[in-house]
Design brief:
- The longest helix is centred in the first third of the chain and has 15 residues, at 13-27.
- This protein is 13% helix and 43% strand.
- The protein is mainly beta and 443 residues long.
- The relative contact order is 0.12.
- β4 and β5 (123-132) form a beta hairpin.
- A five-stranded antiparallel beta sheet has the order 4-5-6-10-8.
- The two termini are 49 Å apart.
- It has helices spanning 13-27, 32-46, 77-84, 90-95, 100-107, 210-215; strands spanning 7-8, 11-12, 64-66, 112-120, 123-132, 136-145, 153-160, 166-169, 174-175, 181-190, 199-207, 218-224, 235-245, 248-257, 262-268, 274-280, 283-286, 291-293, 301-305, 308-313, 324-328, 330-335, 340-344, 349-352, 358-360, 367-368, 371-378, 393-398, 404-406, 410-413, 416-422, 430-434, 440-441.
- It is built from six helices and 33 strands.
- The chain folds into three domains: 111-229, bacillus anthracis domain (Immunoglobulin-like), CATH 2.60.40; 235-331, Conserved domain protein (Immunoglobulin-like, Sandwich), CATH 2.60.40.1640; 339-441.
- The chain crosses the membrane at residues 57-75.
- It comes from Cohnella pontilimi.
- This is DUF4179 domain-containing protein.
- Keywords: Membrane, Transmembrane, Transmembrane helix.
């Protein structure tokens, strides 16, 4: 995207570049399969102003197949070349390369250009565009270091003040001292499917360093939303199928397909003897073998209540498969009787634990301000967990009197986990509750 907003004969430089990009796109020889996808997108556009009914003869068929082998997600190099070689769009493709559904949305002209900018103290923040539907909003931004000074810049607080039904997520925001231009995304997730307003009142704090960003002035953007782009672009399918894995019953309910993601309701039988944490390598697969994995850079699930979740997948909205299968290699789960870990603070010992892979290291308590760090080692040689860092425990913990406390800080390194607790006169032992653990079940 361009970094300035100069006016040229009544048009901004950004508008002129977009027009040039449009001409380039029109001259590109588009492969047949992509051309067909674009025609499908155009047909969808003509239908956006009315609610679409599910009249297709072919229906989704969803099932859970626990497989020993793992299928990999195949990204289309043709799409990457088609979009990535166009000046100005290449950087957007790189930003969402982790999400196949968002790439399809961009290919189908689903992004809404915005082009708003503000500049304070030599830093320019531009809102380039948005991808939005009833479930999710992704805001694309560019941060420019206009005067070239060396400084560490941090994005502190990001929120939509007129859309309280959404939570935000914006990944890494700390920029090093020597930088010129950085691009990124803000993500807002809707929990209640409340209608998105006509204008998004976006507020962002940008400061030099973490402390400065907390007290920095608020940058405000009023981002217009063209709701006709996604009006009626949602498809809902009742799955209502129950599978049993090692005696554990799992029911898959309603599946909702949006342009930005797919949401699948899942419920775990209260009579299950194990606590189910997560599915390994769960993905959607169509009849042609094309797969759409879970959301890996953003919100991957929403907890509705105890034992009920919505799992989020990359969207196949623009693919329109005839059949859809839900596949996973295994499920992380642990006996409910092993969920509590008891810690003797004075003796620095684990009085109860899931298995002998978990130990408390000798330097268990490390002073830091008003906190102590419980340092726990977990021996785990499973190759599936090689690059995975577990949040081992829930934030709540309690002492022997039943008083509940909260840990607001956790950390991990390879095989070692830090759980910070307040310095206090606890009535021992402390009880921590397992939130995730590398033990698995298979069909």
């Amino acid at each position: 995207m361009v970094n300035t907003m100069r006016e040229t004969d009544g048009y901004t430089e950004e508008q002129l570049q977009l027009e040039a990009m449009k001409e380039q796109i029109e001259q590109i020889a588009v492969p047949e399969e992509i051309d067909e996808a674009i025609r499908n997108g155009m047909r969808l556009g003509r239908q956006r102003r009315r609610r679409r009914r599910l009249t297709r003869a072919a229906s989704y068929v969803a099932c859970l197949l626990i497989l020993a082998s793992v299928a990999s997600i195949r990204f289309s190099p043709t799409v990457a070349a088609y979009v990535g070689d166009i000046p100005g769009l290449r950087s957007l493709v790189e930003l969402i390369n982790y999400d196949k559904g968002l790439k399809l949305a961009l290919e189908n002209d689903y992004m809404q250009p915005v082009g708003l900018s503000e500049e304070h103290d030599g830093i320019q923040l531009k809102v380039d565009g948005i991808i939005a539907d009833e479930s999710r909003i992704i805001v694309f931004y560019t941060l420019n270091n206009m005067d070239g000074r060396k400084r560490i810049v941090n994005l502190g607080e990001v929120k939509l003040v007129n859309y309280e039904h959404a939570s935000s997520d914006f990944g890494s925001s700390n920029f090093s001292e020597d930088w010129h231009s950085k691009q990124g995304t803000f993500e807002f997730n809707s929990h209640d499917e409340v209608g998105i307003p006509e204008t998004l009142d976006l507020e962002i704090k940008v400061g030099e360093g973490v402390e400065a960003s907390a007290t920095a002035p608020v940058w405000k953007f009023s981002v217009p939303v063209d709701k006709t782009r996604f009006d009626g672009m949602k498809e809902t399918y009742p799955i209502d199928q129950t599978v049993t894995v090692e005696g554990q019953r799992i029911t898959f309910g309603k599946m909702t397909v949006y342009p930005s993601r797919v949401g699948l309701e899942v419920a775990y039988d209260p009579a299950n003897t194990k606590k189910i944490f997560a599915f390994d390598d769960i993905r959607l697969e169509d009849e042609l073998g094309e797969t759409f994995g879970t959301i890996t850079n953003g919100v991957s699930a929403t907890t509705l209540s105890d034992g009920r979740q919505i799992l989020y997948f990359q969207s196949n909205y623009f693919r329109k498969p005839n059949h859809l299968y839900l596949r996973a290699s295994s499920i992380r789960a642990l006996d409910k009787s092993k969920l509590e870990v008891k810690v003797d603070v004075d003796q620095k010992q684990l009085l109860s634990r899931p298995d002998d892979r978990m130990t408390l290291t000798g330097n268990a308590f490390t002073g830091e301000e008003d906190l102590n760090a419980l340092v726990i080692r977990l021996k785990n040689e499973d190759p599936r967990d090689k690059n995975f860092h577990y949040f081992l425990f829930q934030t709540d913990y309690k002492d022997a009197s039943g008083q509940v406390f909260q840990s607001n800080r956790m950390g991990s390194t390879t095989g070692e986990y830090q759980y910070y607790i307040k310095k206090a006169n606890y009535k021992g032992p402390l009880t921590l509750t397992i939130a995730d653990y590398p033990s698995r079940i298979k069909r």
